Amino acid sequence: MPVPAPQLGSYQFVTETKENLDWADLVTIDLAKYGTPEGKKELAQELLSALRNKGFFYVKNFNIDQERVNRQFALGREFYELPLEEKLKYVPDLDAGKFNGYTPAGRYVINPDSGLKDRIEIWNMPKFNGYFPQEYPELIKEHLPEIEEFARALHSEVLDPLFVLLALALELPEDYFTNIHLYKEKSEDHLRYMKYSKYTAEENAKLNLWTPGHTDLGSFTLLFRQPVAALQIKDPVKGEWKWVKPQDGTITVNACDALSFLTGGYVRSTIHRVTVPPKDQQQVDRLGLLYFSRPHNDVKLVTAKESPVLQRAGYTQNEFEASGNPVPTMEEWTFAKQKWQRKRTYIRDETHRTAVILPGFQEKVYDDKPVAAAA
User: Which residue range or ranges hold the Isopenicillin N synthase-like Fe(2+) 2OG dioxygenase domain (predicted)?
Assistant: First the structure.
């Protein structure tokens, strides 16, 4: 029997940490300026600077009100309240690199000495464009029109402007990147509800990280504000780990592998990780709302050599091109990296963490030591 869908109710965010953390100094892209040629020009340079110097940035004034965002958080909360046996009906073939549906917690040992496993649950929903048949629990079925509208709005109100600004910054036609990120086309984008369940204080004392340093495989990742501090980024210039501060009314955005390939490494795929929260937030779960943007599946990940900016800077080959190996399509890259990520040895096996994903691209270990919270 299907589990009846509960009423959503309101969503209450937890209190932000009062600890004095070493926060990253990130640029905020204000899309209120996007409506004029002068505003676009200014934003394009702000975006390029953010991508080159930090890789992470905030976006504000993106025409999606907080109530719509809160309802997605509430849906995520209610989804994770479903019985485990109900959620387990929607597990894809994870070992084959499939990712749409439910991923249960406990697949990875994150501390070999204690045997502690991850407590991360993931619910991924693909594009609603006819290419991705997907089964859903009643809770999600009842809200699919709202979820679809939200996902499509992320494209039109956030991603499309960012891709236009990136094209302008690289002196390419405005539609250069939007033409390979059309919602109607087949690509492995997905909307995600992600839950990190809490550990006890004693367990956290044995842990350095909840998720090790890594890069995302797509174009841009959108992370909606949630107050539990745990996300850290590695400054691409200084090599230092910094905490990412939740900012009201913003989306935190990071650049990913596909944009790095498409720009010959000029746009860096940003290294980030999830660490143990500060002590005043260790007693709560961490619920995330994210969107992962990716080029069309059939896009070959070749460098945009026609960009005058890339030509002048000398960024005209990515890892595949420079090594003489075949350049993958986005679909080939997606499932090669997903299959690697989903293997149960992913977190603790150093040999696995430095594997060759495809000929021409070898993964790296990005962690040194965690940034400590202030006492």
Answer: 195-292
How many Cβ atoms from other residues are within 10 Å of residue 4's Cβ? 8
Q: How far apart are CA 147 and CA 76, in angstroms?
A: 11
Task: Please give the pLDDT value at position 84.
Answer: 97
The residues pairing with 227 across neighbouring beta strands, listed in sequence order, are none
Instruction: Report the pLDDT value the prediction gives residue 80, as an integer from 0 to 100.
Output: 98
Indicate the DSSP class of residue 130.
S
SS (H, E, C) 43-59: HHHHHHHHHHHCCEEEE
Alpha-helical segments (H) within 97-174: 138-141, 144-154, 160-169
Give yes or no for a contact between 17 and 235, defined as CB atoms under 8 angstroms apart. no
Cβ atoms within 10 Å, residue 133: 7
Q: Of 59, 64, 72, 55, give the one whose Cα is nearest residue 250.
A: 59
Q: What are phi and psi of 116, to 5 degrees?
A: -65, 135
Distance set, CA 22 to CA 15, 231, 372 (Å): 18, 12, 9
How does residue 198 score in pLDDT terms, banded at 50, 70 and 90?
very high
Summarize the confidence of residues 259-265 as an average pLDDT: 98
Q: What is the mean pLDDT of residues 243-268?
A: 97
CATH of domain 28-299: 2.60.120.330
Predicted TM-score (pTM) of the model is 0.94
Model confidence at 345, pLDDT cuts 50, 70, 90, reads low
Three-state secondary-structure class, residue 26: coil
Please calculate the CA angle 189-194-102 and round it to the nearest 5 degrees. Answer: 70
| Token reading at 86 | 């109900």
Cα torsion at 138, 141, 143, 149 (round to 10°)? 160
| pLDDT tens digits, 164-194 | 999 999 999 999 999 999 999 999 999 999 9
CA distance 310 to 165: 15
Contact present, 26 and 56 (Cβ < 8 Å): yes
- Residue 351 scores a pLDDT above 60: yes
The band of 97, judged by pLDDT with boundaries at 50, 70 and 90, is confident
* CB contact at 8 A, 343 and 95: yes
